[in-house]
């Protein structure tokens, strides 16, 4: 009996040892598998960290299709156009601002829309058979150089005889002294905030783009421009006279960018920047709280901040005291060798980091239309930014005499801070088919 018990214990111990060996083997195999997977995952994470996450290559503005359509149509509809309203007097667009009809016009510097060239107006309301009569009060758009010849931009206010609380449909103008007046009507533009869902105007920034008839900038340059400003927090773009870029705008809209195109058949000599800037300020209000007019070769570059709106809020936290932020412009030379660290895949404006400190350039303004008032000069509420905070990089050919040294040009690579995020932008990868 004892012998059988002893043999049973021996067999049991062998089975236990065999089980321990099997468990140990499985544990070793599992440990080796875990070790392999750990290093594999670590390698993948290192690759992602180096090249960027794949999802980030598809970054596009996040806005639903209905809201995007409302914003694009809200800025561009009804389409404006320059029309003659008298001898050398032209009007472009009309807006409903603070219970008043405002018209953007251009006319002779001497005489304008007053004196012998005074105008009358009338306002039409929906469903009404008779208009409300009024009279035009003209004021020169601020920021223009005074001159006795040529043309100036004007803000025309149709002062009507009674107060109305609804948005008019049309405004009609004619010259007072004409025996048979040639009446000209414009539709009144007004952005309906109810159609923009929960968008906060104070948190939006609109860029109005000047026509580039002389530069003929490529479609990719426009895409790069929109991509750059999108990563800086710009919500909307309005292209004036950009009909040849209409197909580009459509492709950008497909990727979530709010890009509107409106005509700009400016009827007289000059660039009409004052008139365009005045139209831009009214066209965006009250849907956007911040507005700036730029050429396609002008880039606002913050030195410290990564977002333009946050920068403005830091400068004027209450959004009440400042109606205009003024940026100095620095001329970055396109005919000087590229930045030594620039890569071929970067957009061209990222290559240009040398500027001419002696070049005389103007200023660029970001307006807050909601803070503008008719009884307070805009200069009193202007915040002038130091180039150490931000400046406008304007790309253009510099005047370099033959044989002159380029040592006088200064190196300023601030814009390269944004190259990594820009290259990940989904908008930058938008492909546009050539027009057939």
UniProtKB/TrEMBL annotation:
It is found in: Membrane. One of its GO terms (cellular component) is cytoplasm. The chain crosses the membrane at residues 15-34. It comes from the Eukaryota. Keywords: Membrane, Transmembrane, Transmembrane helix. The keyword Transmembrane helix applies. It is a single-pass membrane protein. This is Uncharacterized protein LOC113206115. It comes from Frankliniella occidentalis (Western flower thrips).
């Amino acid at each position: 009996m004892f012998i059988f018990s002893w043999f049973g214990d021996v067999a049991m111990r062998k089975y236990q040892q065999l089980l321990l060996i099997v468990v140990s083997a499985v544990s070793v195999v599992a440990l080796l598998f875990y070790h392999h997977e750990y290093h594999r995952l670590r390698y993948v994470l290192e690759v992602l960290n180096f090249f960027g996450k794949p999802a980030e290559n598809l970054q596009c503005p996040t806005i639903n299709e209905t809201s995007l359509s409302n914003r694009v149509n809200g800025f561009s509809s009804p389409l404006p156009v320059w029309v003659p309203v008298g001898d050398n007097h032209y009007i472009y667009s009309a807006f409903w601002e603070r219970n008043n009809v405002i018209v953007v016009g251009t006319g002779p510097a001497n005489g304008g829309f007053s004196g012998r060239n005074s105008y009358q107006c009338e306002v039409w309301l929906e469903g009404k058979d008779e208009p409300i009569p009024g009279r035009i009060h003209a004021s020169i758009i601020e920021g223009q150089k005074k001159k006795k010849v040529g043309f100036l931009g004007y803000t025309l206010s149709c002062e009507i005889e009674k107060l109305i609380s609804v948005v008019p449909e049309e405004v009609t103008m004619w010259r007072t002294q004409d025996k048979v007046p040639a009446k000209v009507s414009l539709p009144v533009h007004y952005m309906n905030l109810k159609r923009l869902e929960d968008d906060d105007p104070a948190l939006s920034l609109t860029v109005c783009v000047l026509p580039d008839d002389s530069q003929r900038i490529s479609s990719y340059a426009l895409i790069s421009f929109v991509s750059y400003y999108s990563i800086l927090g710009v919500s909307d773009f309005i292209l004036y006279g950009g009909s040849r870029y209409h197909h580009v705008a459509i492709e950008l809209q497909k990727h979530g960018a709010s890009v509107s195109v409106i005509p700009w058949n400016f009827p007289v000599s000059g660039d009409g920047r004052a008139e365009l800037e005045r139209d831009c300020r009214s066209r965006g209000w009250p849907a956007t709280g911040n507005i700036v007019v730029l050429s396609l070769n002008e880039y606002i570059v913050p030195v410290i901040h990564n977002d333009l709106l946050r920068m403005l809020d830091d400068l004027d936290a209450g959004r009440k005291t400042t109606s205009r932020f003024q940026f100095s412009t620095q001329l970055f030379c396109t005919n000087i060798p590229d930045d030594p660290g620039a890569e071929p895949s970067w957009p061209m404006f990222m290559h240009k980091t040398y500027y001419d400190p002696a070049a005389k350039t103007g200023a660029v303004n970001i307006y807050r239309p909601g803070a503008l008032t008719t009884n307070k000069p805009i200069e009193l509420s202007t915040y002038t930014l130091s180039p150490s905070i931000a400046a406008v990089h304007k790309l253009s050919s510099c005047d370099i005499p033959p044989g002159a040294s380029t040592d006088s040009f200064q190196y300023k690579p601030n814009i390269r801070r944004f190259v990594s995020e820009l290259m990940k932008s989904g908008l930058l990868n938008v492909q546009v088919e050539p027009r057939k």
